[in-house]
Design goal:
With about 400 residues, the chain is α+β, with helices and mostly antiparallel strands. The chain has nine helices and 18 strands.
């Protein structure tokens, strides 16, 4: 684990790439005309419709495309650093589903309440299936003919808010993405209804979310909401850099009927290798969660105060600068930043390919950039990170906050 601990010092900007894009204010607006022709609705009413939706059963296909603007091969190098490809089972969900953070993928999904969900990731002729059925979670990689099995997490069969299942195994759906954006409120955001659309053959309203503040890397977030039941059908996040959306996830086919119980059955294929999850949690494991624990030790738990990083620490010592979409998190590693040539060889190229040297009143440092989250690592060991532009990070460092 020594190499992983060393690597964690270099991976700060990437590890915090899940920082949520700030708080949201509600600005009512009437729906614009469009196709289909639906009754007018305000943004407030549409948000209430999403909150009231209680979809428990569905099946269908959705497509997710992700473009963080990383250089070619960057995510592959990052996956290797975090433990990807080094696990004992290619079917392990904690490794396999990291593929969703890059490129375009097609998935089949099915859900029957909080106790049964199934997801199949299609990759050419190969398939990867993840099944939660009662007390068990099964994963199968047809390419390697490997099976991963573990007991469902505590509470996986219990309903959370709005009847959702607190299952960490399943990847982000359009609804989960929408909930993350809408769960907080403030006056930093414009929210309007931006016409209507057809998504997966369903009539939908389009909720448009935009920052009021300058300096954010987020141009807009658009959520297509089923006009009949309030279920988000599509989620699109666009960057101020333009080009392809950072995230574009939406159903291409959807049916809200109850799937057959047999859809969630799983039988280990003959000759398949089975790995039990509990056996993988012993000392010496190189699983991604161990990387997270090492990262926590390295930075004293300071990531706990960031949205989405509550499991990594307690939040002590974290300095949050600004508010809303231009929030910047400042962390102090307490030691000078390591030199690039000291980095593990698997990420030296990654650092060089998307790190820009900058200078200012604060001294000098390197800005690590994606289309959504940027991070400034100063040579004296301070880190400024947020869904903000490079100039905003340098300004914060110059202010000495």
């Amino acid at each position: 684990m020594a190499d992983t601990r060393k690597a964690s010092r270099f991976i700060v900007p990437i590890a915090v790439a899940g920082v949520a894009a700030a708080t949201i204010g509600l600005v009512p607006a009437l729906a614009a005309s469009g196709d289909p022709d639906l009754p007018e609705i305000t943004a407030q009413q549409l948000i209430e419709k999403i909150a009231a939706s209680d979809t428990q059963t569905l099946s269908g296909t959705f497509r997710i495309s992700t473009d963080l603007g990383l250089p070619v091969g960057g995510l592959a190098d990052l996956g290797a650093l975090a433990g990807g490809g080094g696990g004992s089972s290619s079917a392990d969900p904690t490794e396999k589903l990291t593929e969703l953070v890059s490129g375009t993928h097609t998935l089949r999904v099915a859900a029957d309440g909080p106790d049964r969900q199934k997801l199949t990731l299609l990759d050419g002729s190969d398939e990867y299936s993840l099944i939660h059925n009662g007390d068990d979670v099964w994963a199968y990689d047809s390419k390697s003919k490997e099976v991963f099995h573990e007991k469902a997490p505590a509470g996986a069969g219990e309903k959370g808010e709005k009847g959702e299942t607190p299952s960490k195994e399943l990847p982000t759906t359009p609804k989960q993405l929408a909930d993350e954006v809408l769960k907080a409120a403030g006056d930093t955001t414009s929210i309007t209804v931006d016409g209507t659309a057809k998504v997966a053959g369903r009539d939908a309203y389009q909720l448009m979310i935009k920052p009021k503040q300058s300096g954010s890397t987020v141009e807009s977030i658009k959520i297509a909401v089923d006009a009949a039941n309030g279920t988000p059908l599509k989620f699109t996040l666009a960057s101020v850099e333009g080009g392809k959306p950072v995230v574009d996830a939406g159903f291409t086919k959807v049916d809200f009927g109850k799937p057959a119980a047999s859809d969630f059955d799983f039988k280990v294929p003959e000759g398949a290798k089975v790995t039990e999850g509990a056996a993988e949690k012993g000392a010496g494991s190189e699983k991604p969660e161990d990387f997270g624990k090492d990262f926590e030790k390295e930075f004293g738990g300071e990531l706990g105060g960031l949205p989405g990083f509550g499991d990594l620490g307690t939040g002590g010592g974290l300095n949050v600068i600004g508010e809303g979409w231009t929030t910047i998190a400042k962390l102090d590693s307490g030691a000078p930043a390591p030199k690039t040539d000291e980095a593990p060889k698997e990420i030296q190229g990654l650092l060089d390919s998307f790190g820009d040297k900058v200078t200012g009143k604060f001294g000098s440092g390197t800005v690590f950039k994606t289309k959504l989250v940027n991070a400034l690592l100063t040579d004296d060991g301070k880190v400024y990170v947020g869904a903000v532009t490079q100039d905003a990070l340098v300004d914060a460092a110059n202010a000495g906050k």
